[in-house]
Amino acid sequence: MMARFIPFIFVLLWSTGFIGARFGLPYAEPATFLLIRMLANIAIFAVLTLVLKSQLPKGTAFFHCLVTGMLIHGFYLGGTYYAIYLGMPAGLCALLVGLQPIVTAVLLLGQERLAWSQWLGLLLGMLGIALVLQGNMSWQDETHQAAAFGFAGLALLGITLGTLYQKRFCRQVDLVGGSVVQYMMAAAVFMPVMLTAETMMVTWNLTFTLTLTWLVLGVSVTAIWLLLYMVRHGEASKVASTFYLVPPVTALEAWLAFNETFDAFSAIGFAIAAVAVFLVMRKPGQPVFRKKAQVDSQASSTI
What we know:
The chain is an all-alpha fold. It has helices at 2-24, 30-52, 60-85, 90-97, 100-107, 116-134, 145-169, 175-197, 206-232, 237-242, 246-258, 264-281, 292-300.
């Protein structure tokens, strides 16, 4: 019975990453916050590598993990955190970067033929975004909207290209060992940004400490263990089909935690965008992302 709920628990954990960013950013600037998180991740996953006797990638696999870490954890997390830091609502940020399957489908138009339902999903995705942007969502700060959208675009580009790159070059890499290398690369991305563009000031209060602990243990570590369990027990295919729930779940969480308001236009837009992502990810007559290796690489890219 519990196994049936694990994919949804995984998605809930993933959605709280946006909420955690909103909680922690008042006490540390984005690159500083993320560097601390990456260093904690490296320490924990290094221990897990020893305990589980996982293999660190070598040779070209090591290089491919560096590229993946730069794109997924560096550009994606960095862009997400800076967008929220500049005032973008957490729900809107989750929606924009959650369009990754739609952008991927567009990039692969010359290589893969889309079914009619996937074309419908592309059209619905544009309609959903238009409705959300037309709606009235509460921004923390409206003076830097253009820059916030730019960073959200960087995050979307990072997660899209990073996922495609990982699917092609990192399928055989050990999940835990590969994560160590990816987090190391992400730390290398955030370090110079912190040193040159931020004050490096951190307010170590209870809120920031608990938020950081949750992002490391709740999102990075627990989600990894759930992923490993799902892959081992054949449940991973359900993860991909539930990722379209992340933006509306994040918007609901942001409303409960921060009173981020949205009107009927935005609510309808979120629902339409969720259906759009589902249609694009779903292959008619086949389970979503049938091959376990593909599901493994997509799911691991969101940790």
